[in-house]
Specification:
The protein has 9 helices and 7 strands. It is of the alpha/beta class. It has a single domain, classed as Rossmann fold, CATH 3.40.50. It is globular, with a radius of gyration of 17 Å.
């Protein structure tokens, strides 16, 4: 195995307790259970993801908080897990590059990246705003796991390293493809048996990763 140079983190459930879509939806005054229902209808093929995005965008725009300033403040106030900053500081001191690769919203992922001092990030989702700063479109990429691998491939090409020099840290099913690609996935406090099956290491907390890297 080549020397590890890059540590990639998932965000929701890994570095942050909770879910960015939950934070956003409830934060601006919409119903998260309703949002989840629309998402699962998309996953089951009852409606297309484009139609699901259109429905949720309409619901968001019915709330005065669905504006860029409010959403930025909402995400800036999100706290990372207690041991997240300590772990990333430890990893950076050891010379590893730190990147976030998440299925979440780019504004949110950027905020988390800044909080932990990451070297960069990739996000699968984003929001577009109109000229008044109001949400006009939700951009969501359906194949979350596959897109994470695409981000990984882009990143290692940019850094001039190979996939076996990457460790990917995550907690859920949408990290499975990244674990399979790197063959060095660390599952953190995961409830996913599928993810654990393809994991290199399994830990209960971020703090335990210091014993591995």
């Amino acid at each position: 195995m080549n020397k590890i140079k890059l540590i990639c983190f998932d965000v929701d459930g890994t570095l942050v307790d909770g879910n960015s879509w939950h934070i956003l939806t409830e934060g601006i005054g919409c119903s998260y259970p309703e949002h989840k229902d629309i998402y699962f209808r998309c996953r089951q093929g009852e409606i297309s993801f484009i139609e699901g995005e259109r429905i949720m965008t309409k619901k968001f725009r019915e709330n005065s908080n669905a504006n860029e300033k409010f959403i930025n403040n909402l995400f800036n106030n999100v706290e990372v897990k207690n041991d997240a900053k300590d772990l990333t500081s430890y990893l950076k001191e050891k010379g590893y590059l730190i990147y976030l690769i998440s299925a979440s919203i780019d504004i949110y992922v950027n905020s988390v990246a800044e909080k932990i001092g990451a070297d960069g990030f990739y996000a699968n989702s984003s929001l577009e705003f109109d000229d008044k700063g109001i949400v006009k479109k939700i951009i969501y990429q359906e194949n979350e796991g596959g897109v994470k691998v695409e981000h990984l491939q882009d990143l290692i090409k940019k850094l001039g390293i190979t996939m076996d020099q990457v460790v990917f840290i995550g907690d859920s099913d949408n990290d499975i493809e990244a674990f399979e690609a790197t063959k060095q996935g660390i599952a953190v406090n995961s409830s996913s048996d599928k993810l654990k099956k393809v994991s290199w290491k399994i830990v209960h907390s971020l703090e335990e990763i210091k014993n591995i890297l």
